[in-house]
Design goal:
Layout: H1 2-21, E1 27-32, E2 37-44, E3 47-55, H2 67-89, E4 98-104, H3 108-125, E5 129-133, H4 134-140, E6 156-161, E7 166-171, E8 177-182, H5 188-198, H6 206-213, H7 236-252, H8 256-259, H9 261-287, E9 291-295, H10 302-309, E10 317-319, H11 330-342
Parallel strand pairs: 1-4, 4-5, 6-9, 9-10
Antiparallel strand pairs: 1-2, 2-3, 6-7, 7-8
Helix pairs in contact: 2-3, 4-11, 5-7, 5-9, 6-9, 9-10
């Protein structure tokens, strides 16, 4: 451990010295393995040169991510994905100035693969090692040059919505973020996927609900909304409401879901989005801020993106990332690594993966 600490200190000072001698834009390799996507990206300055992701289709037959299978797939994919990112970016291993990786939160087995690869790569190359918080990275994806137009200015609010998280965050700086509200049970992404499963749709079901919703009437069916004070969220009651409704209707008509699929998807999507938007408006009012961004996998939902844009009619500035930076990807890890590198926030070889990583 002492030797590793000495090596880490040497790497940090070596980076500082070399940085003084060179004015070139730094090149960062980003690694993302928090769940079931193996991703690698090359960032030069704040511009993404490549962003390669290998999806794990094996989980579809199980209706959800199987942690053991996910970690094994990461082991099979990570070298191939990194090679692909280097090739597409026309960058060699010797050009990499630092490596950023997802430390957590996420599935521990999956995180271990990326963490081990990054630590080994940094040690072998003698370059800085940058440990990234996955949820912060989703937010900082907005600072990639081609992320979606203009960039928010600190401080701003961000709604982070994914399969595992639903949070309203006050973003004061790249490393100072305050969670103002979060789900007390299920996340919005999980609500989408579980509702899709009730409708007999394949996993992941959230994108399918979004697709079918565009062909349906969002006011066809009404579902109960949870009454949660403040800025916290709850989606378990909504899932129960959908389940009871479908059970009652299919008893009357076995073909109810098939005959009303588009309207059901549209109504479910409308309900979830209304819950999210109502909390966003409350947060903007309470904080007095006028900038709101969205991040995370559910931020790719077309309905949510449209409703957020409507807030501009009320005088707010909205920031919506490109689709490729919504779901888990290494580009967002790399840009977070850029902030860490510029501020010399390095990790050493004793850093470990953390399934539950605090802010």
């Amino acid at each position: 451990m002492v030797l590793l600490a000495i090596l880490s200190i040497f790497v940090m000072y070596n980076y500082k010295f070399n940085n003084l001698l060179s004015s070139k834009e730094t090149i960062i390799l980003g690694i993302e393995t928090s769940c079931d996507d193996t991703s690698a990206a090359i960032l030069k300055g704040t511009h993404i040169l490549s962003n390669i992701t290998a999806n794990q289709l094996i989980h579809e037959q199980y209706g959800g991510v199987v942690p053991e299978l996910a970690s094994r797939s990461h082991q099979e994919n990570i070298v191939r994905v990194v090679d692909g990112a280097l090739l597409k970016a026309n960058v060699s291993i010797e050009d990499i100035d630092a490596i950023a990786f997802t430390q957590g939160p996420g599935l521990l087995g999956s995180l271990l693969v990326g963490t081990s690869f990054a630590k080994s790569f940094a040690l072998a190359r003698g370059i800085p090692l940058l440990a990234v918080n996955h949820m912060k990275a989703h937010i900082l994806a907005h600072f990639i040059d081609d992320a979606g137009g203009s960039k928010p200015e600190f401080p701003f609010l961000c709604l982070t919505v994914s399969g595992g998280h639903t949070q309203i965050v006050k973003v004061n700086s790249f490393d100072q973020m305050e969670i103002l509200g979060k789900t007390i049970d299920d996340a919005a992404g999980e609500a989408f996927d579980k509702a899709a499963k009730m409708l007999g749709l394949n996993y992941p079901g959230g994108p399918l609900i979004d697709e079918y919703a565009q062909m349906g009437n969002p006011n066809s069916f009404q579902f109960s909304k949870p009454k949660i004070d403040g800025l916290n969220f709850s989606f378990s009651g909504l899932k129960t409401s959908i389940l009871y409704f479908l059970n009652a209707e299919t008893k009357k008509n076995n073909n109810f879901i098939r005959e009303n699929l588009h309207d059901l998807c549209a109504s479910i999507q409308r309900t979830i989005i209304e819950i999210l938007i109502s909390k966003i408006k409350l947060a903007l009012k309470q904080t007095g801020l006028n900038q709101i961004a969205i991040a995370g996998g559910v931020s790719a939902n077309s309905g949510l993106r449209k409703e957020l844009q409507k807030l501009e009619n009320e005088g707010y500035k909205t920031f919506i990332p490109k689709f490729e930076y919504c779901t888990d990807n290494a580009a967002m890890i790399a840009i977070n690594g850029k902030f860490l590198l510029d501020n010399e926030v390095f990790s050493n070889q004793s850093v470990t993966a953390q399934a539950r990583l605090n802010w």
